[in-house]
Amino acid sequence: MSSSFNIYNVSSDLSLQGFDLSPEQAIVAFVFAAVNYIIILFCNFFLLFTVITNKGLHEPMYILLLNLPINDIIGSTCLFPHIMRELLFDTKTIPFSICITQAFFIHVYAVSTVFILTAMAYDRYVAICQPMRYTTIMSKVHLTKIISLVWLSNLTLMGILFILLLRLPRCRSYLTHPYCDNPSLLQLVCADMTINNIYGLLITALCQVLTVGLILYTYLRILIACFHNKSSDTRSKALQTCGTHLVVFILFECLGLFTIISYRIKDISPHLRKFIAVGAIILPPTMNPIIYGLRTKEIRVKGIKFFQRKKVLTS
Predict the structure, then answer these.
(1) In Å, how far are 11, 44, 54, 304, 306 from 301, measured between CA atoms?
(2) Taking the model in full, what pTM does it have?
(3) 53 pLDDT band (50/70/90 cuts)?
């Protein structure tokens, strides 16, 4: 094995700062986390089930939407079992290999969220600004290419990020973070991190500029098209759909921004830093299916019909 991939890097345990709760507080936090995780799984799986089992929802917009609950399940599953185990058994160690796996998928989750929302914004742009060409542009082939690009580009970028991390030796084993991610793992390194920092800043800037730029451009064009449209019903439907996307995107961006700022401010309360870090992973998977389920009429109607059928069958 190459010396750059020291076996020490993948074999020992890391210590976590944890939440420093009393046994009573830990039980309450565990119950809250368990209930929250069950709600996330139920809501996201129900959203998946609703779209998959209703042929009327087999349209590009909803096929792209399917990727969001899949991604939310990945993100929440990276975090909740780990937190619940820590709260229940008061364990504050994690094997390095599991830590790397958790960090990798948390970053995949974060980048996938903005990529998926960007793809959904593009779909709405084509549907509203070029309605006559929508079926041609958003064909099955093109849709497959968009979804493949979202996931493959993300996995490639994150793969390179963590290959660069794994080549570095560690001289510390204490994480000042409630879960594993690239910035916290870099704090354990005792070597030159210039390449890692440059690459990390590059992909962060590239992803943010591309996604935010494309989303702002598409929604600006949609807004202009809506005001030019004489049909109030069409305008209202378009603005409602786009408003839902924007709420989800702004929520995620704000949480991500707060997390980044919390890393940079040294004097911030450790408890506040932990709350922000965990909230950035917990809130979007909890809110996304609720927002899309309540604000997207087609999904809401199909969901209500499903529960009505179940009620009739059980009565």
Answers:
(1) 51, 16, 11, 5, 9
(2) 0.85
(3) confident
